[in-house]
Design goal:
This protein is mostly helical. The protein has helices at about 10-20, 20-25, 30-45, 50-70, 85-95, 110-145, 165-190, 210-215, 225-230, 235-260, 285-310, 325-350, 355-360, 365-375, 380-390, 395-400; strands at about 150-155, 155-165, 190, 220, 265-270, 275, 285, 350.
Length: about 400
C-alpha cells in the first residue's frame, strides 16, 4: 500500500513513469530511513502517541530491517515506490495497528530529506577518508622522488626547471584546500529536516530538537519551507565540492598521460595497468588515466543537471526533486571510485630519473641566465633581450621579413 493511497488505483503506465528508478536507488537509503524512524518513534512515545510497548516493538523491528538490509535481504518492490513505503508496509505487516502509527507527525517529504541527509553525511565522511588516503599517497610519492628535477611546462611547451616535489606538492596543497571545503559542505548538510512536514510544519508542536540530537545532527533546519527550498541547493553544494576534487583528478590524469608519453618517458605505469590495441601490436594505452580524466566532466554535468532541475520552481515541494537522487548518487560514486583508482596509480607509478633530468634542456635555464645578468647590474629588459637574441637572432628575423635574401 502506498503512503498516499486513496480510494482509486493509479494507472499502471503512470505509476511506472512516476516511480522511475526510485525503488532501485533507494536501496542505499534503507538504513538511514530506519535510523530516522527510530528517532521519530521515540519522540512519538515521549508525546504519548506510542506506548512504551509499541515503541519497543517498532524500534526492534526497524533494527531488524537494518539487519536484513545489511544481508541484502530487504527488498523494495516497484509497487512500493520507494524505501519509505517499503519500510512502513513491513512494519504494518509485522506489527499490525502499531505499525500504522509510525507516520504520525511525519510527511514523506521530510522523511526523504532526512534519510538523504544522513546518507550524505556518511558519504562525505567516506569521501574525506579517500581524500586523506590519496593525499597520503601523494606525500609518500614526494618523499621518494623529491630531489628529481624535470621540465615545467606552460602552453604545453617547456618553460622552466621544475621538480617532482614542486609538481606533486601543488596537488597536495590543493587537496588540503579541498578538505577544508568538504568540512564547510558537511557543516551545511548537518542540519536535521525531520519535523518540517511537507514544508509547512504541523498543527501541533513536535520535538524536533529531540530527534535531531537522537540522529546526531549538529543543528535543526528551523524554517520548514527552507527544508524544501534547500533540496537541490545542498546537493549542488556537494557536487560542487566533488567537481573541485575531480578537477584535480582530471589535471593529475592529464599530467600523467602527458609525462608518460614515450617521447618524454618521465613517468611510467606498469604493464598491468595498461590496455592494448586490438589492431596495433605496439600500443599500450593509459585507459585508467583517460577515464579518470573524463570522470570530472561526468561529475560536473551532474552538478549542472541538479542546478537546472531545481531552478524556476516556486517555493515548496515539487516532484522534480525526485530526479535529484540519481545525479548526486552517481557523483558520489564516481568521485569515490576515482580517488581509489588514483591511489592505485600512485602505488605503482615509476619515475624515470634519467629521462627527467635529460629533459632539462638548456633553454629551460634562460630565465635564470636573465636574472644572473640582472644581479650583475644590467637592467631587466636589456638582460631579457640579450638572452632572447640567442634564441631569436636579429639576422634571421631580418631575412624572414625581407623574403629570405638578407637585403
Amino acid at each position: 500500500m502506498k503512503l498516499w493511497q486513496k480510494e482509486y488505483k493509479l494507472d499502471r503506465a503512470v505509476e511506472a513513469f512516476t516511480v522511475g528508478e526510485d525503488y532501485l536507488l533507494d536501496q542505499r537509503l534503507v538504513k538511514y530511513d530506519c535510523i530516522a524512524s527510530i528517532a521519530h518513534a521515540e519522540m512519538l512515545a515521549n508525546m504519548g502517541i506510542l506506548s512504551s510497548k509499541e515503541r519497543i516493538s517498532i524500534v526492534d523491528e526497524l533494527n531488524h530491517i537494518i539487519r536484513l538490509w545489511e544481508k541484502r535481504k530487504f527488498f523494495i518492490r516497484k509497487s512500493d515506490e520507494d524505501c519509505h513505503t517499503a519500510i512502513e508496509n513491513h512494519l504494518t505487516r509485522t506489527l499490525g495497528e502499531t505499525g500504522k502509527k509510525i507516520h504520525t507527525f511525519r510527511s514523506r517529504n521530510d522523511q526523504v530529506t532526512t534519510a538523504l541527509r544522513l546518507y550524505y553525511k556518511d558519504a562525505l565522511l567516506e569521501i574525506k577518508e579517500s581524500m586523506l588516503k590519496t593525499k597520503g599517497a601523494f606525500v609518500f610519492f614526494r618523499e621518494q622522488h623529491r630531489e628529481i628535477g624535470f621540465p615545467g611546462f606552460n602552453h604545453t611547451r617547456k618553460a622552466m626547471p621544475s621538480t617532482i616535489e614542486m609538481w606533486i606538492g601543488a596537488f597536495i596543497d590543493s587537496m588540503r584546500d579541498n578538505l577544508q571545503l568538504l568540512d564547510s559542505v558537511f557543516y551545511l548538510i548537518d542540519q536535521s529536516p525531520l519535523g518540517s512536514g511537507s514544508g509547512y510544519g504541523f498543527p501541533q508542536n513536535v520535538d524536533r530538537l529531540f530527534t535531531s540530537e537522537r540522529m546526531k545532527f549538529q543543528k535543526i533546519q528551523e524554517n520548514p519551507l527552507y527544508v524544501q527550498n534547500s533540496r537541490g541547493k545542498f546537493e549542488s553544494a556537494i557536487l560542487n565540492l566533488l567537481s573541485f576534487i575531480m578537477m584535480d583528478v582530471n589535471k593529475m590524469a592529464s599530467d600523467l598521460i602527458f609525462f608518460s608519453l614515450p617521447e618524454f618517458n618521465f613517468m611510467e605505469l606498469p604493464n598491468e595497468y595498461l590496455t592494448g590495441s586490438s589492431m596495433m601490436p605496439h600500443i599500450k594505452n593509459p585507459d585508467i588515466l583517460e577515464i579518470l580524466r573524463a570522470n570530472y566532466h561526468r561529475v560536473l554535468s551532474n552538478e549542472f543537471n541538479i542546478k537546472s532541475l531545481v531552478s524556476q520552481l516556486i517555493s515548496g515541494y515539487h516532484r522534480d526533486f525526485q530526479l535529484i537522487k540519481g545525479p548526486i548518487f552517481e557523483g558520489l560514486d564516481i568521485t569515490s571510485g576515482s580517488l581509489n583508482a588514483l591511489q592505485l596509480v600512485f602505488k605503482r607509478l615509476k619515475v624515470n630519473k634519467e629521462a627527467c633530468e635529460s629533459g632539462l634542456s638548456p633553454e629551460l635555464f634562460s630565465t635564470e641566465r636573465v636574472y644572473n645578468l640582472v644581479m650583475s647590474g644590467m637592467p631587466f629588459r636589456d638582460a631579457y633581450h640579450s638572452i632572447a637574441r640567442e634564441y631569436f637572432p636579429i639576422d634571421s628575423q631580418i631575412k624572414r621579413y625581407n623574403g629570405g635574401n638578407g637585403n
